[in-house]
Amino acid sequence: MNANHHIADDILLSYAAGSLDEPTSILIATHLALCPLCRQHVSGAETVGGELLNDVEPVSIEEGALESVLARLDEGDGEPINVSSARKMEQNELNLPRPLSEYIEGSIKSLPWRWLGPGVHYTPLAPDAKGPKVGLLRIAPGTRVPMHGHSGQEYTMVLSGGYTDMTGNYQRGDVEAAEHGLVHQPVADVGEECVCLVVTEGTLQPTGFFAKVLQPFFRI
Question: What's the pTM value of the predicted model, to 2 decimals?
């Protein structure tokens, strides 16, 4: 199934240029693994960037610079990198794309999920990454996420299941970009749990009758 909701071209260009923060790059790389159209756009941008680099005048470097870099690479402790957990996640229950599976230890169910509301749970990823917060959101089938607004930009990408809000229906690979000020209430599709990758700036702001009750919990 191909994605129907894509990432804006200017964000894809920034990704191709390597100028985005790590959390947003995780989401975009995961989307690209599932979206041939956006992969084509990024590939085109990288090709143009390579051609521009060919027109740049070469700059001389100090004598011995290469030897210095190689010597620094050899200064490590020599311990092998353990990638077994990432490899195992390629066969996980959600069939996660590799760019995301590299950030997850163990199975999805074993992650430290935090309650956000009835049928809604969240767990953070890459806690040491600079920039927006990134994490996974689980929504039980047919569940309505509490009505909320945003104090900053939010990207939500569906990994399994699907959901619908005032802007449309989102399925595996789709990305919703919620701008500051948008107030909405996503509703998970019936029949299958909806799991999403979420990148947020600022905080989510619950609204309505239960806003004061949910405010202490509804933080991503």
Answer: 0.75
